[in-house]
Fold this sequence. Notes:
Number of strands: 2
Largest sheet: 2 strands, antiparallel
Strand content: 5-15%
Amino acid sequence: MSLLRNAFGRLRRGLPTMDFMKNKHEDCANFDNGACKFFHFTNVDPKGQACPHFKAKKKAEVETADAVHV
Length: 70
């Protein structure tokens, strides 16, 4: 019984997190001017839900992007 419990414990700890679902494409470092650099997709909705390969932009990137749009 303990072998089964240990196996389920390892599975539970090893599953990927779904934190990327809280973010938008426009907040991703791989998103540039409507295109995803990771998957090479174009016409990506910036307000859409981020993909599992979400990588947060650095703070400096966010500030310069906001300054360009103002």
